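input
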Amino acid sequence: MAGAQGWSRFGNAAPPSETSPDNKSDDTRGGPASKIRLELGIEQDSFTSMSRLTPASRPLCMTKSKTIIIGGGVIGLCTAWQLLEAGEDVVVIDAAASGGDNGARENAGLIVPSHFIPLAAPGMLAKGLRWLLDRESPFAIRMRPSPALARWGWLFHRHSTLEHVRDCAAILRDLHLESRRMFAELADEGEHFGLVQRGLIMLCKTQHALDEEAAVARTAASLALRVDVLDATAVAKLDPDITMDVTGGVHFPDDCHLDPARLLDLLRERVIRLGGRIRHEAVVDEITRHADGTLAQARGEGFAERGSQFVIAGGIRSEALLSKLGLRLPMQPGKGYSLTLDAPAQVPQLCSLLTEAKVAVTPIGGRLRFAGTMEIGARDAGANPARLRGIIRSAGRYFPEIRPEAFDGLRPWVGHRPVSPDGLPYLGRSRRIPNLIVATGHAMMGLSLAPVTGAVVAALITGRPPFRDLSALDPERFH
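output
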């Protein structure tokens, strides 16, 4: 999960699409893979690292501004880190206590350039509706009379097209690759947050699933991503430390994983070390305006913070705050769970996604985390026992030595991902409010995309061009 990143492929990805008479191999992330592979037609050279910009392309901001970042999760902290590195004054307003969760502390911790297909893709909605009949399935919609949910569903349906997938693939690839580069650079500086750069395996129980993933792998190769399709023997050789009952898998060497809790702690420490300030247990109730309509001050119970630039990066909480400013972004919470075994019978070397089950599996030190489920529209903090049973049962089906009783008594972690209807984050400057930048809606890819999101926000505030065209992420694209 970024939240459960097992979904962006549905968690991080879209669920499997339905099979049509004309297409026998559908993409498990939501689209007919063979059509996607043949019709994407994406340029392979659109990616340019932020570090590769020439000095001439990096105009300096002549006056230092004070930026108020509303949201102390991984997106807000990465934004603060990047702004402070650029010499800006920063205050982070965090609703959680110091050292709190912020929606990422126990997520899957995956960094996934492989997840270039958005959640909104052909066949996704139909498959999701069929899954509603299975109480243990990895997908659910919390149905209720709600104009906002109805609008979200309609927009999701409208964007579940092959054309949308084609339009999104290059930008998602580039965002993930840039974020991965930044994570690796952070580790090279000597920062320790459990980064493991050995790739991710899409584990497939059935030949049908392996054929579908192999089709996705060919699309990935056309996007210049490294990928290998493996049989069961090759999978076992790649990760010999755990017994697997699979037909095969697809290995994406450029994917990696980390320890989300250590990353959050590191980012908080880095923000403070660079001179930033974090106000904990502070909920913003309103943002006042100047006479010209620009934002002036963030206020809550017992505090007020004045700034010249404002960044709203509060995950699903961003929705209500933006609405008060007249920006009604269609966004729904996507609730997911994780369960972490402290002393598992076996620990793999690589992270993986259980393809048919839509569960992410992450080794974190000597522990083993299983994360999954996407409950659209669920705002409560409770855990659904049936969904948890689905995660637990899937673990044993792929890893026979991981017994169901190993999960007895475990406290499930619950997180809410902010999910946009087109599967793309809201990232950019508001056209209506010039000193407001929105950075939310990352769904299952929040952790994976956090560093590049911070870099993009810093570029916008300091007057530098972002590393590529990001107009598709316009936060007001549905207005």
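quick obs: The mean pLDDT is 87.
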